[in-house]
From TrEMBL:
Keyword annotations of the record: Oxidoreductase, Plasmid
Pfam families associated with the record: adh_short
UniProt name for this protein: Short-chain dehydrogenase
SUPFAM superfamilies xrefs: NAD(P)-binding Rossmann-fold domains
Keyword Oxidoreductase: yes
Claim: Membrane is one of the keywords in the record: no
Protein source organism: Thermus brockianus
Family indicated by similarity: Belongs to the short-chain dehydrogenases/reductases (SDR) family.
Length: 207
C-alpha cells in the first residue's frame, strides 16, 4: 500500500506513520530534522513541505505519486476570546486546517479505491468559549470534505472524515496540556486505521 502521512512530525501523524511501518511510506512535515529521523525509523521517505504554500504542496504530491491512502494529520490549536482574537490567529487556523486540505485534494493523485482521511472534531468539544477560531476551522474543513466527497467518488476515491476525542499530543501544549482521559496517540492511530481501512470505508468515522 502506498501511503502519504501529512503532519507526520506531530503526535498523531507520527503514531500513524509508526503503525503503517512496512508499507510504502511517504512522510511530510515542516520540521526537516525530526522528519528525517522518523523516516529512518519507519523506513519511509521524508518529503518536507509547507502545505499552506500551493507550489510546495503540488511538488510534494507529484513526488509521492498515485496513493492508496492519504492521511491529513495537519493542524494547530489556539484559544482566545472573540474580542481578543487577532486576525492572524483566525487566518492561521483556517490556513492550517482548511487551506492545506484544499491544496492536497487539488493536487493529489490516487489509485482506484484509495482513501483520503481528514480529521474534524466533535462539535460539543470545540464549540465552546474561546475556541471560536478553532471551531470555525474544523467546521469549514468538515463542510469542505462533505462537498468534495461527491466529486471524488466519481474517481473511485473515498474521502473519510474522522472525529476523534482528545488525543494526548503536543497540540495541547499551548493550552496547558491535554485534558484528563485523552487518548494516547498510538491508541488513536490504531482506531483510525482499523476504521478507515474497513470495507466499505465509512464517510464519517467517530472514534
Amino acid at each position: 500500500m502506498r501511503v502519504l502521512v501529512l503532519g507526520s512530525t506531530g503526535g498523531l501523524g507520527g503514531a500513524l506513520a509508526r503503525a503503517l511501518r512496512g508499507h510504502e511510506l511517504f512522510l511530510s512535515g515542516r520540521r526537516p530534522g525530526p522528519l528525517r529521523a522518523l523516516a529512518e525509523e519507519v523506513g519511509g521517505k521524508p518529503l518536507p513541505a509547507d502545505l499552506s504554500d500551493e507550489l510546495e504542496a503540488q511538488a510534494l504530491l507529484e513526488e509521492a505519486g498515485p496513493l492508496d491512502l492519504l492521511l491529513h494529520a495537519v493542524g494547530v490549536a489556539g484559544r482566545a476570546p472573540v474580542r481578543q482574537t487577532p486576525r492572524d490567529l483566525l487566518e492561521g487556523m483556517l490556513q492550517a486546517h482548511l487551506l492545506t486540505a484544499h491544496h492536497v485534494l487539488k493536487h493529489a493523485r490516487f489509485r482506484p479505491g484509495a482513501r483520503a482521511v481528514f480529521f474534524g472534531a466533535y462539535p460539543p468539544y470545540v464549540r465552546v468559549p474561546a475556541f471560536a477560531a478553532y471551531a470555525a476551522a474544523k467546521g469549514g474543513l468538515e463542510a469542505y470534505v462533505e462537498a468534495a466527497r461527491k466529486e471524488f467518488l466519481r474517481e473511485g476515491v473515498h474521502l473519510v472524515l474522522v472525529r476523534l476525542p482528545a488525543v494526548a499530543t503536543g497540540l495541547w501544549n499551548p493550552l496547558g496540556g491535554p485534558p484528563k482521559g485523552a487518548l494516547a496517540p498510538e491508541e488513536a492511530a490504531q482506531r483510525v486505521l482499523r476504521g478507515v481501512l474497513a470495507e466499505p470505508p465509512p464517510e464519517v468515522l467517530e472514534v
